[in-house]
Amino acid sequence: MAIIVQKFGGTSVGSVEKIQNVANRVIAEVEQGNRVVVVVSAMGKTTDQLVSLASEINPHPSKRDMDMLLTTGEQITISLLSMALQTRGFDAVSLTGWQAGIRTEPIHGNARITNIETKNVQEHLNNNKVVIVAGFQGISENNEITTLGRGGSDTTAVALAAALSAEKCDIYTDVTGVYTTDPRFVKEARKLYSVSYDEMLELANLGAGVLHPRAVEFAKNYGVKLVVRSSMEEEDGTIIEEEVSMENSLVVRGIAFEDQITKVTVCGLPNELHTLSTIFTTLAKNNIDVDIIIQSSLDRDGSNISFSVKTKDVENTIYVLEQNKEKLAFSHIEQESKLAKVSIVGSGMVSNPGVAAEMFHVLATEGIHVKMVSTSEIKVSTVVDEGAMVKAVEALHVAFKLGESEVQKVNV
Amino acid sequence: MAIIVQKFGGTSVGSVEKIQNVANRVIAEVEQGNRVVVVVSAMGKTTDQLVSLASEINPHPSKRDMDMLLTTGEQITISLLSMALQTRGFDAVSLTGWQAGIRTEPIHGNARITNIETKNVQEHLNNNKVVIVAGFQGISENNEITTLGRGGSDTTAVALAAALSAEKCDIYTDVTGVYTTDPRFVKEARKLYSVSYDEMLELANLGAGVLHPRAVEFAKNYGVKLVVRSSMEEEDGTIIEEEVSMENSLVVRGIAFEDQITKVTVCGLPNELHTLSTIFTTLAKNNIDVDIIIQSSLDRDGSNISFSVKTKDVENTIYVLEQNKEKLAFSHIEQESKLAKVSIVGSGMVSNPGVAAEMFHVLATEGIHVKMVSTSEIKVSTVVDEGAMVKAVEALHVAFKLGESEVQKVNV
Questions:
Q1: Chain A contact for B58, CB < 8 A?
Q2: Is the CB of B408 inside 8 Å of chain A's CB atoms?
Q3: How far from A161 is each of A35, A85, A133, CA to CA, in Å?
Q4: Which positions bind substrate (chains A, B) (predicted)?
Q5: Does residue B173 have a known ligand-binding role?
Q6: Domains and CATH numbers, chain B
Q7: Is the Cβ pair A94, B65 closer than 8 Å?
Q8: What is the pLDDT of residues B273-316, one digit of tens each?
Q9: How far apart are CA A396 and CA A3, in angstroms?
Q10: Closest-CA residue to B153 (of B144, B161, B141)
Q11: Do residues A342 and A255 make contact, with C-beta atoms less than 8 angstroms apart?
Q12: Among B65, B93, B94, whose Cβ lies nearest the Cβ of A82?
């Protein structure tokens, strides 16, 4: 019998009714003759409530105590889901992270999984039980309760799937799959039958955080087949795996975009070896996320460095830079807001040097000025005026024929 | 350095403010130069809320799932108390039941503690940390999360005190100690300096459930010195230990009482060997708690058996008896409601055969008719009219000089 791992996030288990709905999904898989491991997150707002309770007591609680506090959230969900299955006659067993053998680094708040001792889970599966595992949590060598940080439940599910050699890992979420672009903006957007791990990583922001990049990396490293699908709709999802099928003939597989981008330019920097590293180390230390970086050619007045940040972070970015003006030795800072990033993604473009040129051509034909460019092996990103964002996406969606390919039946 | 175990129940940790107050109590003990282990329950209504959530999903959840669900309550409290101590500069570590080495029988919902592996707790104490342990919970041999049932947190505290050879176990509660009788009814009621374990067991209902009998038994078996004291008031409490000091010269040490009692008489029973056992087995199977039992002398029409129950249980008692009328072969049932139980308690009465006689004399002098009597080595219970209850208690309080002895300073 095949082992299937299912993962349900916080919104999918946010109420008694939703937990009953999750039970339906589990039962459907059991009735197909599969052995099922279910990984769940804390119910909807539980984590936020616990965080707020903690902040009333201690504005800077230790990470160990926060792990102790927050892991109760998933423990509540696993017990309730087990009750929901049992009341309908299905044998189930709820396991905390440590009971499921999820071993992690001895780090609180953001531990990585080091190993999974599957003995306990395997025994329960062999006894024909549905095994329900608390996501996001594990245990360190010295028996401390740890958490995996952001995307933790996704990572728990993928790691269990890898350790159990599961047939696949179904990630149930509030979207029906991964799309060529955001269907809320572009009505021609089409659900993809399958994407590769790398494409998924680049398209991550298309699905409104549908799957944490860390879990995708994990799945890629262990060859775990992922399926992103809706917890509410009866609809095929999108497969994420290494070998992408026929549809792979498409060079560009999706268009990601994001507004509220600001371009910051630090001008008149000294032509020194460590300038670049000093600037971005300073920003990183202050938790400022920098996206595209461009270093313009040097001239006798020193060099300029431009980078893009989320507009909400601009104020803090300027503040941090000005605080370090003496050390960084720049002359002044320029900024341009109301920008957007539009990216084309596709593993096929590695062997297609003309893809970037095609993108620029399409944008130029539409009269859209490109302010910044950044490329990777499977992605070309451009920064354009915010007002031109949707027009750019629509034009690229047509030009790269993303609306045309038929959605294939997902046999998973 | 002495080890002190402190236990705080659900009402003592029911809010952020109350948790801060508990932190004060802990800090006071640390500043006295003691090593402190704190055992806490779930916050106020948390357990009720979780039970209600479960009942929405499954009216008969498995005990294993309920243990999984409810143990999150104490886990939340330990993390918050640890945060409260750390924000005030005191090093603390929160431990779940299993992390604190509380090993139990492999039973869910009502497990007994089998052993405590104190290594982890000891290490943290040696590192000058306040150790905060989740009450009510443990772990079985096969790594299942278990709970200890009613009075579980009291039992955790006493068991830890025994295993750590603690100097004492302070039970913080919403009363200031154990009284000679209920001060809400008898203004002469006086707080006792100390009582013995057996007296505490008999006086249990004086303190409105101040301490679970199971924890008292445990303390008695391991010679753990208990102190019952208020979590809100700065006042000495009552010591519970085997050797009671000078005050022990008092024969009667407390007067317990309880209203809403009904006397039920099953009439015309056959004079057979198994009659008594059959009746009370039948009642027990239906979860009916019977208190005083009197078998009246046999005559040619068969025997009568009287017993007292709480008035709220009468309807169910009669129903169960009538359902089994054929098997029990009685003729009819009589009942008398609006009764109360008044008991005198004191280990000194073992060697004072006149104590019961003195009690009856006092009641007779007050014109109070005694309906039922039951005696144990350290207690004499009488059932009287509900309307005479307080008068009986007041008269006995005076007659046995309970208001006269001075409260001694509690050096604990």
A1: yes
A2: no
A3: 12, 21, 12
A4: 47, 74
A5: yes
A6: 3-173 (3.40.1160.10), 255-399 (3.30.2130.10)
A7: yes
A8: 777 788 888 888 888 888 888 877 666 667 888 899 999 999 99
A9: 40
A10: B161
A11: yes
A12: B65
